[in-house]
């Protein structure tokens, strides 16, 4: 296995593992609603929370779909990253407007504004190297 193939494999593993977080959190939110936060909210807020949890679940699953051929999934990876970063910026704005939430939410912010963009940059690097080496576009 070449160094490029080894790096591709490590990226695949990192993305598969990182996507487990939105999949698990999203699924939990869909099934149990606001129970994750321990907050009691209105039925409408509960419905909205479950909807957003479903989106999070879907985003995680879509990241998983990039794993098998990650070197050619740049467009999908970038769109998903953009969605996550926009959500992270909204979370950051909420911090500024309402104060610091739990450590879980701060962890989410780190995933959204640091980990996901780094994975996107890594994916782009692998895609470019594969294109140069094998003519894959």
Quick description:
Helices cover 81% and strands 0% of the residues. By secondary structure, it is mainly α.
- Terminal CA distance: 21 Å
The average pLDDT is 94
- Briefly note the structural class of the backbone: mainly alpha
Instruction: Tally the beta strands.
Output: 0
Radius of gyration: 17 Å
What is the overall number of helices?
4
Strand content: under 5%
Number of domains: 1
The biggest sheet amounts to: none
Helix content: over 70%
What sequence of helices (H) and strands (E) makes up the elements? HHHH
In terms of quaternary structure, what is this?
Answer: single chain
Mass-distribution shape: elongated
Low-confidence stretches: none
Task: Walk me through the topology.
Elements: H1 3-32, H2 43-66, H3 74-98, H4 103-134
Helix pairs in contact: 1-2, 1-4, 2-3, 3-4
Walkthrough of the structure:
By secondary structure, the chain is mostly helical. The chain has one domain (3-132). 81% of the residues lie in helices and 0% in strands. Helix 1 runs antiparallel to helix 4. The two termini are 21 Å apart. The model has no long low-confidence stretch (mean pLDDT 94).
List keywords for this structure.
81% helix, 137 residues, 4 helices, mainly alpha, single chain
């Amino acid at each position: 296995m070449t160094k490029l193939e080894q790096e591709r494999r490590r990226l695949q593993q990192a993305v598969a593992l990182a996507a487990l977080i939105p999949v698990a959190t999203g699924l939990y939110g869909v099934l149990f609603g606001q129970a994750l936060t321990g907050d009691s909210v209105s039925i409408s807020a509960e419905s909205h929370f479950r909807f957003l949890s479903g989106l999070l679940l879907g985003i995680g699953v879509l990241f998983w779909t990039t794993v098998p051929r990650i070197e050619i999934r740049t467009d999908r990876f970038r769109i998903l990253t953009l969605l996550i970063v926009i959500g992270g910026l909204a979370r950051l704005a909420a911090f500024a407007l309402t104060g610091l939430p739990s450590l879980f939410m701060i962890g989410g912010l780190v995933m959204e504004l640091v980990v996901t963009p780094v994975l996107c940059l890594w994916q782009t690097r692998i895609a470019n190297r594969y294109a140069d080496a094998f003519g894959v576009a």
